[in-house]
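User: quick one, sequence for these C-alpha cells?
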C-alpha cells in the first residue's frame, strides 16, 4: 500500500512512455505488468543465442523531430538506442501473384509509383491522394486544435467526410480496382483490422507515418524496451512483472486503489 504519485497499469509502449517520462521528471512511479516482461507487441525472445522480435517490424517517428526521437532525447537514451533506417526506396513490399510493389519512404513518391504501376487508374490515384494529403494537412500534429475542429468542421472537410469511413468504403467510393486496393491496403494488418473495419484515418496515419520514418532498433526491440525499463528504475521507479490487476477500486469517478494477486497498490493518479 505504499502510495505512489503515479501507478501505471501495463508495461506496453504507452505505459512505458508515460512511466519513463514521469520518473525522469522526479515523480514516484510504479508499473504493474501481468506478463513476465515489458514491451507488449515489442517484445523479443531468444533461441540458440539469437534474438528474435516477436511482432513489430519497424517503428515510425524515430528520426530527428519525431516522437520516438524526442522521447529518447528526454530520457538521455539516444546513445544507447540506435536505429537502422530501412530502405528509402522500399521499406515495405506488397506481393501479389503478378506484382511485387515496393513502398517508398515518401508519400509523393508512393503516389507517383502507383501512377506508373496502374496508369489506367492515375486519376483515381490522384483523387484519393488528394484526400490523404488533405487529412494530413487538416490534422497537422503541430497545429491541430480540437476546439477549432469542433467549431469549424467545414475547414476539415476531408477528415469529416472520409476519415471515419472504413478503408474499403473509401476505396469503393473512388472506384479503385481490386489489385490497386490490395496494394494500398497492404499495411492495414499493422493495426490488426481488415480493410472493411479499419478507419481511413488509420490508413493515412500508417502510410504517412512510415513514409516519414521507418526504422528498426540496431539491437532489436527487446534491447530498446530493456533500456526504457532500466531508465524507469534508474530514476527511482519500480516495475512489477507477473502482477496482473484483479480488482480496481473507485470512489465516484476516481480510481483509488488496485488489487493484484500479490498486494494492493494506491497512487495519487492511476493510469
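Assistant:
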Amino acid at each position: 500500500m505504499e502510495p505512489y504519485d503515479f501507478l501505471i497499469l501495463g508495461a506496453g509502449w504507452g505505459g512505458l512512455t508515460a512511466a519513463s517520462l514521469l520518473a525522469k521528471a522526479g515523480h514516484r512511479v510504479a508499473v504493474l505488468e501481468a506478463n513476465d516482461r515489458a514491451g507488449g507487441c515489442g517484445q523479443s525472445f531468444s533461441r540458440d543465442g539469437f534474438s528474435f522480435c516477436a511482432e513489430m517490424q519497424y517503428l515510425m517517428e524515430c528520426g530527428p523531430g519525431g516522437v520516438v526521437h524526442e522521447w529518447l532525447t528526454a530520457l538521455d537514451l539516444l546513445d544507447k538506442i540506435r536505429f537502422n533506417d530501412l530502405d528509402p526506396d522500399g521499406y515495405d513490399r506488397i506481393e501479389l501473384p503478378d506484382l511485387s510493389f515496393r513502398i517508398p519512404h515518401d508519400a509523393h513518391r508512393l503516389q507517383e509509383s502507383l501512377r506508373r504501376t496502374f496508369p489506367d487508374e492515375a486519376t483515381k490515384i490522384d483523387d484519393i491522394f488528394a484526400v490523404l494529403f488533405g487529412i494530413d494537412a487538416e490534422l497537422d500534429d503541430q497545429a491541430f486544435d480540437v476546439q477549432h475542429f469542433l467549431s469549424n468542421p467545414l475547414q476539415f472537410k476531408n477528415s469529416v467526410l472520409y476519415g471515419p469511413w472504413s478503408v474499403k468504403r473509401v476505396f469503393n467510393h473512388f472506384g479503385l480496382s481490386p489489385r490497386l486496393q490490395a496494394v494500398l491496403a497492404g499495411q492495414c494488418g499493422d493495426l490488426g483490422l481488415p480493410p472493411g473495419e479499419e478507419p481511413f484515418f488509420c490508413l493515412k496515419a500508417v502510410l504517412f507515418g512510415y513514409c516519414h520514418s521507418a526504422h528498426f532498433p540496431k539491437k532489436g526491440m527487446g534491447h530498446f524496451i530493456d533500456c526504457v525499463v532500466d531508465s524507469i528504475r534508474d530514476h527511482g521507479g519500480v516495475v512489477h512483472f507477473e502482477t496482473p490487476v484483479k480488482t480496481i477500486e473507485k470512489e465516484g469517478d476516481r480510481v483509488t486503489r488496485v488489487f493484484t494477486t500479490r498486494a494492493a497498490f494506491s497512487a495519487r493518479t492511476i493510469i
